Amino acid sequence: MSDSTADTVPAPVAIVTGGAGGMGLAIATVLLGDGFRVALLDRRGAQEAAAMFPETGEATGRRVLGVEVDVTDEGAVRAAVAQVDVTWGRVDALVNNAGIEPQHSLESIEAGTWRVTLDVNLTGPALMIKHCIPLWRRQGGGRVVSIGSRVWLGGGATASYSASKAGLVGMTRTACRELGALGVTANVVAPSFVRTPLNAEKGDAEFVNAYADRFAAASPLGRLVEPVDVANAVAFLLSDRARNITGETVHVAAGTQLAPFIH
Ligand SMILES: NC(=O)c1ccc[n+]([C@@H]2O[C@H](COP(=O)([O-])OP(=O)(O)OC[C@H]3O[C@@H](n4cnc5c(N)ncnc54)[C@H](O)[C@@H]3O)[C@@H](O)[C@H]2O)c1
Predict the structure, then answer these.
(1) Domain that holds residue 103
(2) Domain count for the chain
(3) Ligand 1 centroid vs 231 CA: distance in angstroms?
(4) Taking a C-beta distance cutoff of 8 angstroms, is the pair 152, 168 a contact?
(5) Domain-located, residue 7
(6) What is the mean pLDDT of each run of 10 residues along the chain (263 residues)?
(7) Has residue 3 been placed in a domain?
(8) At 74, which helix (H) or strand (E)?
């Protein structure tokens, strides 16, 4: 799917939610390099993010699109997928990457915080898949990769976040069964700590650096995962090379998914 840039074959189209974030920009960069046209969907900064990518000129047409959308709003999701379809006439791949991680303990959790985490991290991806299905039925196939987290297995983050990411694994396994007959594969890429705004918001530089150091120390490879590592795994799962990989959770965690509690 990723190398179809010949004149007669239209370049494949990928939607990346959370496309204005740290991981989203890295995923978009790698997919553009693989020949995809990429729609960056984000609740804020989508247009600005799209403008960061140089266009390739009139001959090849527009290759990056920015669409402001809150993935928890089904009407907005429906409209965003339709906008991509109107612009490029297809959607080959969906990367469910938008996510939030509000900080709380179980003792301090408020129902609203719990619900919004589950809404963004789990309901949003389900709505995105729902509204891509008619296009995949029309096209005879498609791909879904959802960005989970190491914590689905090891815990260690907030309970709402861990629950949402474990839920993504469950939803993906069902998507694999339900959508297989349409030629759609569905997988999860589960990173560990990556330096992005998501982690920068957890504390000051000293706190975040110490947190990062603990992950590097817990890795058998002794290093941190970078956004491009996650993007490369996504690109592989969207490619024809991965056509028979579905229902899978691929850890991009430098081995820290095997580590005991990292705190
Ligand atoms: N950074 C890490 O250490 C790490 C580790 C494991 C998994 N992840 C996952 O990777 C994904 C990307 O995170 P990131 O690290 O790039 O964080 P980030 O904060 O840089 O990016 C997240 C993006 O999602 C967008 N977003 C949030 N709520 C949204 C909504 N309702 N609708 C549309 N867009 C919304 C934000 O505006 C932001 O641009 C998330 O799913 C996150 O859980 C991150």
Answers:
(1) 13-258
(2) 1
(3) 13
(4) yes
(5) no
(6) 58 98 98 97 97 70 93 98 97 98 95 98 98 98 98 91 98 98 98 93 92 96 98 98 98 94 78
(7) no
(8) helix 74-88
